[in-house]
Q: What sequence folds into this?
């Protein structure tokens, strides 16, 4: 019994249940719960930048062949684009078959004042400048703001520079390796607070939005959850079978991370932990260092499914019959806009707003319908994103023959 209570997975499950009950019974606790959840996520965010930087630098410096670094990065980006395209197609197909927007009456549900901030941010975003944004003008500022893509870019250059020093850089390499161990030790301590963070996140969600907010949107929520389940257990499972590893055992191995994301509604809350877990699962450290952080910006499978379904849902709500050509156009636009908002707070609504503005067929104000239930679907998005990025690490590691089968067998015992 003592072993059960000390188990992190059990603690997180208990915290999520307690949080949901607290939010339901004491809605006024929501403000305090948000403070608890935000504080935990801030603790994680504090570690993300240095852990990503050190992991990538050490990985590249120890890799030897820089051509291999380029090959791993190229494979990862190609894989991300293929999988997110699958996710887009699945989302649109399911939304067309189930038709979650049919019969929904939006008149009483829309409060257009709430979406002004998202429309403003969407108008400010210049999608053509996305590539130039990756290059930081001040790396200290990038670390301070936690801009993952800019840190990733700088870390690759730093790792390359250290790699070219060969033996001369060995003392720097040893120092960075020790520093990396320090940060991972801090991360292990912070993760023990995960149940508190999960409790706060769930109490805030239920206390703020209430169960009543779900009732009018049950059909859309069911549609989104079913689609993401299908994506994980059909598409991602097929990939796991092709690359000869078990989806079920992988999910069991990262079960604590899945529950933490469920409680906090943030996949970033487990980013450092997932990097460590994927190394333990058998993936080489350099591969994990490149694939996981990049995937958090380019491989957002759950977000992609949600966005594609939301566009079709809104078209159905407003009785707009989208032709096949228009739906293909939407897919093309989402493939670009979903990448452009990477790392931006509230990016889901910003992307949706900019996409609706681009196609000029569906009223942009319609996204206000989704505001009340978005938080309840963010857990599914975040979990799907996280699961997809872990699988991407295994796929790239196996394709590069950088997967340790002995570690894998030990992890799934």
A:
């Amino acid at each position: 019994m003592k072993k059960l209570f000390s188990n992190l997975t059990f603690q997180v499950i208990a915290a999520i249940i307690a949080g949901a009950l607290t939010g339901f019974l004491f809605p006024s606790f929501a403000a305090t719960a948000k403070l608890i959840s935000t504080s935990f996520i801030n603790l994680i965010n504090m570690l993300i930048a240095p852990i990503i930087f050190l992991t990538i630098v050490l990985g590249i410096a120890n890799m030897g062949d820089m051509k291999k670094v380029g090959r791993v990065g190229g494979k990862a980006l190609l894989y991300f684009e293929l999988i997110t395209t699958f996710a887009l197609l699945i989302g649109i197909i399911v939304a067309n078959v189930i038709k979650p927007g049919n019969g929904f009456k939006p008149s009483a549900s829309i409060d257009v004042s709430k979406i002004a901030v998202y429309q403003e941010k969407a108008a400010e975003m210049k999608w053509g400048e996305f590539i130039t944004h990756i290059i930081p003008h001040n790396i200290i500022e990038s670390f301070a703001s936690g801009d993952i893509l800019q840190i990733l870019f700088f870390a690759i250059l730093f790792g390359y520079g250290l790699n070219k020093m060969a033996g001369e850089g060995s003392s720097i390499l040893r120092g960075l390796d020790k520093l990396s161990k320090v940060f991972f030790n801090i991360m292990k301590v912070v993760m023990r607070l995960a149940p508190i963070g999960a409790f706060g996140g769930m109490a805030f969600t239920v206390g703020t939005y209430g169960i009543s907010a779900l009732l009018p949107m049950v059909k859309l929520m069911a549609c989104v959850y079913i689609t993401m389940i299908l994506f994980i257990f059909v598409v991602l499972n097929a990939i796991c079978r092709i690359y000869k590893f078990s989806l079920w055992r992988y999910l069991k191995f990262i079960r604590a991370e899945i529950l933490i994301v469920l409680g906090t509604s943030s996949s970033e809350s487990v980013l450092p932990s997932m990097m460590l877990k994927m190394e333990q699962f058998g993936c080489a450290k350099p591969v994990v260092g490149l694939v996981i952080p990049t995937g958090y910006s380019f491989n957002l499978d759950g977000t992609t499914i949600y966005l594609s379904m939301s566009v079709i849902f809104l078209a159905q709500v407003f009785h707009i019959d989208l032709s096949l050509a228009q739906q293909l156009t939407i897919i093309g636009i989402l493939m670009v806009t979903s990448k452009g908002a990477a790392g931006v707070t509230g990016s889901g609504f910003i992307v949706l707003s900019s996409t609706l503005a681009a196609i000029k067929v569906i009223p942009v104000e319609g996204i206000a319908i989704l505001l009340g239930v978005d938080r309840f679907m963010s857990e599914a998005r975040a979990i799907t994103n996280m699961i997809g990025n872990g699988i991407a690490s295994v796929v790239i590691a196996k394709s590069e023959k950088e997967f340790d089968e002995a570690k894998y067998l030990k992890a799934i015992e």
Summary: The first helix runs from residue 2 to 5.
